[in-house]
Amino acid sequence: MTARYLIAPDPENAGLTRAVSGLDQSGRSVDLKVVEERPLTIFLNAREIVTAMTIGDYPEYLALGFLKNQGMLHPEDEITSVEYAPEIDTIVVRTRVETDYEDKLRKKTRTSGCAVGTVFGDMLDGLQGLRLPETPVRTSALYKLASEINQTPSLYLAAGAIHGTVLCQADRPLVYMEDVGRHNAVDKIAGWMLTEQASPDDKILYTTGRLTSEMVIKTALMGIPVLASRSGFTAWGVEIAREVGLTLIGRMRGKRFVCLSGEARLIWDADPGTLPEEATRHRRKGAGDD
Amino acid sequence: MTARYLIAPDPENAGLTRAVSGLDQSGRSVDLKVVEERPLTIFLNAREIVTAMTIGDYPEYLALGFLKNQGMLHPEDEITSVEYAPEIDTIVVRTRVETDYEDKLRKKTRTSGCAVGTVFGDMLDGLQGLRLPETPVRTSALYKLASEINQTPSLYLAAGAIHGTVLCQADRPLVYMEDVGRHNAVDKIAGWMLTEQASPDDKILYTTGRLTSEMVIKTALMGIPVLASRSGFTAWGVEIAREVGLTLIGRMRGKRFVCLSGEARLIWDADPGTLPEEATRHRRKGAGDD
């Protein structure tokens, strides 16, 4: 099942889950596996940027992808090192010269004391003039991806309470990242793409999470033209997707889906009438909500 | 159904959802309701603190609850006004004198330029020496709450892609808040409690989201001794709940649940054998994931 992946989940990695004992509804003792959640403080050169709550795998990809998706790292920034110090839950991304973001942060700090509020504005600014490629997407490929991803052994299936995001190419899932943190899984994919210099033009991003403004902005900033999810939409997510011409597909379960933006990329080569409804055992239960 | 609530969801409020047209899996035109998502920038006196993404209801409760749950507002801080300016998506909470947090922020800014990284540490510091009351909880009350909340008309049922958190007292749901933002629903409840001077001692918090470290810390800082969810756990969430003696119940669906901390508060007065499994129509579908 995982043979086609470049990176697949590793539910057997003992560092990512913990066995915990408790009581079930009858008062009987039960043992269960729960996912780890650890702080990771990300520095850009000498600047402390954020403390993310993460499951803990691929910290280098997470740090790089976070900085890139927040508009803090640009293509012209030459990355000289990424140093992970697990004993102090810290990772430092260094660039050859100070980034524009650090420069802006210093100016901002002088006037108002903190630059947190600028981040979302910076992300939106990055969308100005963005053109996403007109790569066609077969609906048969979307169904195949959703089915294969749902059946791939994962931390979600082993322990729940975690989100998954998968970078795909046509009908092939390539890189499947999971994380407890809201957007960490997609940031880890961005970090992998940056490291591997992978082209976004022919890619599809599949996520288990909701299609919020932040998710849509991140996908567009990564240059990926198609975002699909089992979950639902927010109005602003739809609005931004339409503005940048991103194909947005949600509520994808079994034979069902809804496309609310960028429908011109779709090639309708699957007959939903021949597909089954989603089997109960493949539903993502509430354990993965949130 | 909503008669017992002090505040119930208002799915008919036209400002909270938007009608959007798209295509379904057969290429047929469909209209659906999606939830709104708006930025709200929160100021504490002259300090810009954060821009939250919110559905937009109860901005005053959200701002107050956020500041309190982040450890930025303390009981000794006298709140003089809360001014919401919808035309610029901004809300300002003013106190009679400058808060400790602003003072700390100014010192921190002088040295490292930004105080973002301190916030989580401040939240953890707030747990030192915390004692939660030993209020007993009947398992029959938990089942009754879960069933009543699942059947309450809500934005989730109308449009999906949203989280709910409900403040309860014994078997009665009191205040049911929903929001697109990860922790906004619980912050709105904290803001309501602060405004109404509601005692946390005899309360139960029910959430549709996962039991992460942040959710557990917020509940404990609010002084509420019991946190229950349909969703799953993270290891750190369980660890913190055990340290502060909070009753933590997860994976609560139909007759099932798991208690991983604070089981001494439970009174096992329900016979799960007589309860049905959760009906498919009451499952929270993926639309509410994330």
Kindly describe this structure.
The structure is a homodimer of 290-residue chains. The radius of gyration of chain A is 20 Å and the shape is globular. The first copy, chain A, has 8 helices and 14 strands. Chain A has 2 domains: 38-125, Ubiquitin-like (UB roll); 137-285, Cytidine Deaminase, domain 2, CATH 3.40.140. In chain A, α7 (213-221) packs parallel to α8. The model of chain A is unreliable at 110-118 and 286-290 (pLDDT under 50). Chain A has helices at 59-69, 100-112, 118-125, 139-151, 155-159, 184-196, 213-221, 235-244, and strands spanning 17-24, 29-35, 38-44, 47-54, 79-85, 90-95, 137-138, 163-169, 172-179, 203-207, 226-229, 247-253, 256-261, 266-267. Chain A starts with 16 loop residues before the first strand and ends in a 23-residue tail after the last strand. By secondary structure, chain A is of the alpha/beta class. Helices cover 28% and strands 29% of the residues of chain A. In chain A, strands 9-8-10-11-12-13 form a 6-stranded mixed β-sheet. In chain A, β10, α7 (213-221) and β11 form a beta-alpha-beta unit. Chains A and B meet through β1, β2, β3, β4 and α2 of A and β1, β2, β3, β4 and α2 of B.
Produce a short descriptive summary.
Chain A is built from 8 helices and 14 strands. Chain A is an alpha/beta fold.
